[in-house]
Amino acid sequence: MHLRPIHFTDAPFAYPDGHVARLAGGLQWFTAYEVIEPAGRRIVPIGDVARLGERAAMLHARIVAPRAPWVLGPRTLRFDQPQVAAILNITPDSFSDGGAHVDDPAGAASAGMEMAAAGAAVIDVGGESTRPGAALVWEEDEARRVAPVVERLARGGALVSVDTRKGAVMEAALAAGAGIVNDVSALLWDDRAPAIVARAGAPVILMHSPDPKQGGHGRPSYRDVVTEVFDWLDARVTALEAAGIDRARIMVDPGIGFGKSLADNLALVNGLAMFHGLGCPIMLGASRKRLIGALDHEAPVERRLGGSVALALAGANAGVQLLRVHDVAETVQALRIWRGLRDRALSPVS
Q: For the chain, which residues make up each domain, given as ranges?
């Protein structure tokens, strides 16, 4: 069984107790579930979820539970509203903005601090492209790319995540001041990674891909991409809990664009609210991705701002806590307007 929160409402105060629920302690409220079972799908009001059995009760408890903030030294990352993680690539071959900051740690750090000043809660620093066909970077070269940038950003007061799948790079970045590990392979590419993260006590972001050992861009055929990605992430979270990583320190990412068709990506965005059933914060990384061009006359990467903001707002409406984006100022502004509308809607007229 899977539960997807549906029937969102701007007026939770209009419902009697037990007939409306708050999504993951955030700004969204909902009144029903789509219940997905082998026998089919049905809609069940919130008030009837207790009748669905033990698994439904467990999923419901996870879906409505507030997410504990991540306290990382002097910085705290809260999850009661959507926030932005800024993408800072230190690579020559990123699909979007590669080459802008290669061999220039001071310039890269300056760009990252500008993103923080524009409203990014996290600066996500990566030294290896994960686009299809990208060359593998030797771990020592990758560490030399990212560590000086991470150190400058952390010294400047920014909260930094390191976007890597290699244990040695994780160690170097954490030693340089990174607070979070963001791994597109969900700690599967490097066998050392789970122990490194557990030992450091660092929060980790786990992304789904169908073949993490091979780069994440295989193309399987999904029967139901949303439930299958959910189950895969559920298994990874459970495995990493067993490896000593607290579930409260794990964030999940459905992996938009990694081994998914256009139809798969759209289904995942529409089904994002289901992933709250994992009991973890959610990250959405859809900025400038191929699905935008596919829906807009093959718009090139540099002309995907509107689509990126639209996807970010779709994430906010589904209760996503962290939006990984290239265009920080524009996304932050859109979220501020979204937040203003939510605040006003949740204030009943007296």
A: 2-64, 70-345
* Residues 308, 285: Cα–Cα separation, whole Å: 9
| Tens-place pLDDT, residues 73-127 | 999 999 999 999 999 999 886 655 556 677 799 999 999 999 999 999 999 999 9
In tens, the pLDDT along 281-292 reads 999 999 999 999
DSSP for 31-79 reads EEEEEEETTEEEEEEGGGGGGG-HHHHHHHHHHHSPPPPEEETTEEE--
Q: What is the CATH code for 70-345?
A: 3.20.20.20
- pTM over 0.90? The answer is yes
Helix (H, G, I), strand (E, B) or coil at 106: helix
Dump the DSSP string for 251-291: EEE--TTSS--HHHHHHHHHTGGGGGGGSS-BEE--TT-HH
Residues with a known catalytic role: 289, 324
Strand, coil or helix: 205: strand
- Indicate if the alpha-carbon torsion angle 179, 185, 187, 193 is positive or negative: negative
- Angle between helix 167-176 and helix 193-200 axes, rounded to 10 deg: 20
Give the ranges where 158-224 is alpha helix by DSSP (H).
167-176, 193-200
Whether 159 and 75 have beta carbons less than 8 Å apart is answered as yes
Six-digit token string for 10: 């701007």
Place of tokens 């990694």: 258
Please name the amino acid found at residue 318.
A
